[in-house]
Design a protein that fits this description.
The protein is of the alpha/beta class and 171 residues long. The protein has one domain: Rossmann fold (3-Layer(aba) Sandwich). Helix content is 46%, strand content 18%. It has a four-stranded mixed beta sheet with strand order 3-2-5-4. Strands 1-6 form a two-stranded parallel ribbon. A hairpin with a 3-residue loop joins β4 and β5. α5 packs antiparallel against α6. It is globular and about 45 Å long.
Length: 171
Amino acid sequence: MAKKLLDDFDTLKFSVSATTRKPRSGEIDGKDYYFLTKETFEDRVQNQEFLEWEEFYNGTMYGTIKAHVESELEKGYFVMLDVDILGALNVKKIYGDDALTIFIKPPTMDILEQRLRDRGTESEESLSVRLERAEKEITYADKFDLLVTNDKIEAAYSEINEAVRKFISNQ
């Protein structure tokens, strides 16, 4: 959905997240993620260089580099972030009505589990952690500006596209 939104809105830019995990096959540093060592990531945390960050999935850290977001905003772009619940709530706290938060919910936990298994990127342990985390995250859905159930991809995308279109036109 993110790629389609970027294709549909010229004024929308994607914020590449930083992570301490190793690149998956085909991933490119600076395009898919900024792949950092744990030490570099922690230094950046200490220097308050992240808009939001979190450590999870067996010690893996993810975060949004503040300077990248601010640079795109200064150029007049709207910046799309793909972040976890706490990251989204933190961004909303910082930017208030200048941020649109969208919670994309799976139709059921069973469907989410099958989707994750079909990707083939999760061990049984990490799958269990992700599903447990997803159950907790769903309890925060009412704190977002929009809740979309990702049952039928076309309908979910249409709902998100319309919300983004309205948000951009009102800014």
